[in-house]
Amino acid sequence: MRPLPFAWRSLSRQPARAVLGLAGITVVGALLFDMLMLSRGLLLSFREILESTGYDVRVTATDALPGLGPPIAEARAAARALGSLPEVADVVPVRFGSVSVRGADGRTASVALLGTETRRRGEWRVLRGSDLVEGTEPPSIVVNRAMAQELGAEPGAVVEVATVLPAQPFRVAGVVEFPFETAGEASATVTLDGFARAVGGVAADEADLLLVASRPGHGAEAAVAAIRAARADLHPFSTEQVLERLRQGEFSYFRQVSFVLSTITSFFAFLLVTTLLTVSVNQRLGEVAALRALGFPRRRIAADLFAESALLVGAGGALAIPLGLALARVLDAILRQMPDVPARLHFFVFEPRALALHAALLAGACLVAAAYPALLTARLPIAATLRRETLS
């Protein structure tokens, strides 16, 4: 009989032990799979959000990440200069701020305000009404669902920015979904001129960053190099560079936690399988000695043990995938309730790399776990074991 069928019969002879061992490996494997998805989940999710805007380069006035440094002066002129580069397809200046907005019914809310030019590359999705337009009076504004619900700011309604005096009216053009909006946070977008009118004390020709879309055929890295050569006073970041800085900074905590927990769960998987196989071998010492006496070589006994380990770990690892995905959805929903987390950001993201690494770690645990029981059977004294089993 080949090793796998023989291992299956060995496991089926003690179904309770096999089921408990399988359940333990499934739970441990699910936790391991979740930690592997967590290790790169934030970066993958953040990359997806960044790429959904249609821009692959961010330009700031300093080396600080976008939104954390001083504004860019004469932003429109800088945007025109960068837009003339052959490596650049499009440039849009962006401003960030926070204002107090009063709805038609008198309710007031704090709103995260974004100032930009009219949409060019689908940075947000229109849900109701129309898109942002320029040159209207009062100026147009697009709002997210949270602001529309809180202030009754449906398309056509007029809201007032109460931060400055006198209050500035804006007409709601549409309700949209922004890529980086936070769940429950009211946010809106206006033009750069509208931003200067809504936020007192700022110039209409300043921007916190420039969003740049590289020209097809050149790529983000070529656009970054061209911008650095043309404007040494500006600091461009490709999407990859932004993600790398986040990986080493803000997101490093989750990566470190994932590494620690992955190591612990891999150790528990190894310990569990080793214990199960060792107990199984100790209960079958007489059987193993009899097989050796019948002419079974040491490598065949070791192959049987490795096959038994492979069946346990393989079945448990396969069951761990759907369990891990279900558990990841629950944990992701809990973590996404933290403040200032974008609604579209996910902590656990499935990728083939995580699945391959999960299989490799479990396979390593399978091999290492079977090594000690195989060593016991290899050193087993046949005659003494059979005599002891007979007398007992």
* CA-CA gap between termini: 29 Å
Q: Sketch the topology as an H/E string, one letter per element.
A: HHEHEEEEHEEEHEHEHHHHHH
- By secondary-structure content and strand pairing, the structural class works out as alpha+beta
Q: Please state roughly what percent of the residues sit in beta strands, choosing from under 5%, 5-15%, 15-25%, 25-35%, 35-45% or over 45%.
A: 15-25%
- Main pleated sheet: 6 strands, mixed, barrel
Q: Unreliable stretches, pLDDT < 50, 5 or more residues? A: none
The number of distinct β-strands equals 10
Tally the helices: what do you get? Answer: 12
Nearest-angstrom radius of gyration? 31 Å
What shape does the CA trace take? elongated
Mean pLDDT value: 84
Strand order of the largest sheet: 2-3-8-5-7-6
* Range of helix content: 40-55%
Descriptive keywords:
single chain; 392 residues; 53% helix
Summarize the helices and strands and which ones pair or pack.
Layout: H1 3-12, H2 15-52, E1 57-60, H3 75-83, E2 88-102, E3 108-116, E4 125-129, E5 140-143, H4 145-151, E6 158-161, E7 168-177, E8 187-191, H5 192-198, E9 209-214, H6 220-230, E10 235-238, H7 239-248, H8 252-283, H9 285-293, H10 298-335, H11 352-378, H12 382-391
Parallel strand pairs: 3-8, 5-7
Antiparallel strand pairs: 1-9, 1-10, 2-3, 2-6, 2-9, 4-7, 5-8, 6-7
